User: Which sequence fits this backbone?
C-alpha cells in the first residue's frame, strides 16, 4: 500500500527515504540464486578438505597455479595471489585480506600421558583462540598438522576425516555425578582449559612396562609414523571437529561446518582472485594466519615486510610508503549474525542477519572503539556505491551492543600503514563454535563484492 502525506511518499507505512535491510533471496534473480547454490557446493568441499592454516595455503597455492595466477607463499602459513593491473603499481593496489586460522585445540609440546585409574591414554591440549570450552567436549575430533623431526623430515597428519579413520574426543562427566563439580558453576568455569584432554587409546602393551597403555601408543606411533615422544616438541598438531560441511534446513539454504570464521571469506576471496582478469589496479588476495590470537607471528597480518617485499618485487624503483598510502583494502572477515533467543545483546538496527548479503562494518573494536579500524565516511560511501552499482546485496554489521561485545579484525594493521580499509564479510551464526552456520547467498554476495572491488 502506498500513500502520500505532506510531501513524502510512504509505502507500507515507511518513508521511501528510510534505510531498510533487504533479503538477498529477494534481490537476487532466479539465475543468480542458482549460481549461489552451485558456488556453495565448491565451498563445502573446501571446508571438508581445509581445516588448518597449512592446508588452506596448500589448497590456495594449488588452485592459483592451476589458474596460471602468480602466488607467493610465506612459511606455509600465509599466501598472496597477485593479478597485475592496467595502471602502474605506484597508483596503489586493491587488496582483499582474509585469515585462514580458526579456534581449535592444539596439542601441548609433550602431550602424551596415561591415566591409570581410567585405563586411558590421552593427549594434553592448549586451546587456541576464543572458545566456549564446554562446546568442545564429547564431540568427534580429528588430528591435523605436522611433526618435524630433528633431521628435518616432515610427517603430515590428517586422521579422523575418512569414515574408516579413528576419531578422538574430550570426555565429560555424566549428569548423575556432575551436580557439585559442574552444574552449579558458571559456564566458563564448569570446564577448565586443563581438562580439555583428548582420548587416544586404551590397549595396554604386552610386557613388563610401568605405563603399558602409553607404551603401546608410543610403539604404534613409531611403527606407523616413525615418531618418538620427543618429536612432539617440534610438532604442530591441531584437534579440530571431525564434522563434515552439510546443508542446514529443509530448504538447504544454510551451511553448517567448522571453521567458517574466516574460511567463508577466504574461499570467496580465493575464487574472486581466480576469476579476476585485467583489473584496473594491481590486485592482491592475501590469506594470513594467527588472526584469532591477535595477528601475532611471522605469517600474520602484522608481518608488513611480506607486503613490502611483494610491492618491491613488482616495481623495485617505487616508493613503498607512497604505494601503501594510495592503496585500498577490504578486510574480509565475518560478523555476528543475529541469534534467535539472544537478540537482547544485539543492537538490531545495526546488526547483521543471515541471508541479507555481505555485512559492512565501518568500525570494529570494543567499548569506545578501542583497538578498532574506523573507516572514513568517504571510503564507506565508495564501497556502498560500488555494491549498489553491481547490484550486490549488503547490510551493515556491528558486533553487539555498545559495552556488551566487540571484537577485532586485521583491518587496523593495514590502516596503520595509511591505507583505506573497511571490514566486509558474511554473517555467521554460532561463531567460534565447533559448528558454525552461514547463508549460501551471503557467501555468494561476499564473492561478488570482492570480485567487484578487486576489478576497480
Assistant:
Amino acid at each position: 500500500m502506498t500513500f502520500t502525506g505532506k510531501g513524502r511518499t510512504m509505502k507500507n507505512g515507511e518513508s521511501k527515504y528510510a534505510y531498510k535491510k533487504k533479503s538477498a533471496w529477494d534481490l537476487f534473480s532466479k539465475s543468480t540464486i542458482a549460481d549461489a547454490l552451485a558456488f556453495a557446493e565448491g565451498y563445502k568441499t573446501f571446508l571438508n578438505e581445509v581445516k588448518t592454516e597449512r592446508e588452506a595455503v596448500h589448497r590456495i597455492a594449488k588452485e592459483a597455479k592451476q589458474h596460471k595466477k602468480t602466488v607467493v607463499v610465506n612459511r606455509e602459513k600465509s599466501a598472496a595471489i597477485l593479478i597485475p593491473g592496467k595502471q602502474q603499481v605506484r597508483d596503489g593496489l586493491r587488496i582483499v585480506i582474509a585469515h585462514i586460522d580458526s579456534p581449535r585445540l592444539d596439542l601441548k609440546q609433550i602431550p602424551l600421558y596415561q591415566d591409570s585409574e581410567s585405563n586411558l591414554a590421552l593427549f594434553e591440549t592448549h586451546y587456541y583462540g576464543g572458545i566456549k570450552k564446554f562446546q568442545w567436549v564429547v564431540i568427534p575430533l580429528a588430528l591435523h598438522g605436522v611433526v618435524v623431526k630433528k633431521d628435518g623430515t616432515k610427517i603430515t597428519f590428517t586422521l579422523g576425516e575418512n569414515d574408516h579413520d579413528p576419531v578422538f574426543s574430550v570426555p565429560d562427566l555424566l549428569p548423575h555425578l556432575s551436580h557439585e563439580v559442574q552444574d552449579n558453576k558458571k559456564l566458563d568455569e564448569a570446564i577448565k582449559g586443563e581438562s580439555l584432554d583428548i582420548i587416544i587409546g586404551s590397549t595396554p602393551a604386552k610386557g613388563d612396562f610401568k605405563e603399558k597403555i602409553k607404551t603401546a601408543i608410543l610403539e604404534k606411533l613409531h611403527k606407523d609414523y616413525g615418531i618418538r615422544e620427543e618429536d612432539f616438541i617440534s610438532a604442530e598438531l591441531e584437534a579440530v571437529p571431525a564434522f563434515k560441511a552439510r546443508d542446514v534446513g529443509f530448504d538447504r539454504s544454510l551451511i553448517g561446518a567448522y571453521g567458517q570464521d574466516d574460511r567463508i571469506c577466504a574461499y570467496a576471496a580465493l575464487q574472486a582472485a581466480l576469476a579476476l582478469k585485467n583489473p584496473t589496479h594491481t590486485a592482491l588476495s592475501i590469506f594470513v594466519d594467527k588472526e584469532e590470537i591477535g595477528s601475532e607471528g611471522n605469517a600474520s597480518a602484522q608481518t608488513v615486510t611480506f607486503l613490502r617485499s611483494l610491492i618491491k618485487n613488482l616495481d623495485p624503483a617505487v616508493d613503498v610508503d607512497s604505494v601503501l598510502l594510495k592503496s585500498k583494502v577490504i578486510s574480509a572477515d565475518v560478523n555476528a549474525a543475529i541469534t534467535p533467543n539472544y537478540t537482547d545483546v544485539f543492537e538490531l538496527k545495526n546488526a547483521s542477519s543471515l541471508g541479507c548479503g555481505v555485512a559492512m562494518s565501518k568500525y570494529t573494536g570494543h567499548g569506545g572503539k578501542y583497538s578498532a579500524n574506523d573507516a572514513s565516511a568517504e571510503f564507506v560511501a565508495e564501497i556502498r556505491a560500488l555494491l549498489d552499482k553491481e547490484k550486490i546485496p549488503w547490510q551493515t554489521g556491528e558486533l553487539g551492543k555498545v559495552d556488551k561485545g566487540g571484537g577485532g579484525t586485521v583491518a587496523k594493521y593495514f590502516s596503520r600503514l595509511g591505507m583505506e580499509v573497511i571490514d566486509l564479510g558474511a554473517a555467521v551464526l554460532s561463531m567460534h563454535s565447533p559448528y558454525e552456520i552461514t547463508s549460501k547467498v551471503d557467501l555468494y554476495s561476499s564473492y561478488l563484492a570482492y570480485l567487484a572491488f578487486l576489478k576497480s
The first helix runs from residue 24 to 27. The chain has a mean pLDDT of 93. The longest strand covers residues 104-115.
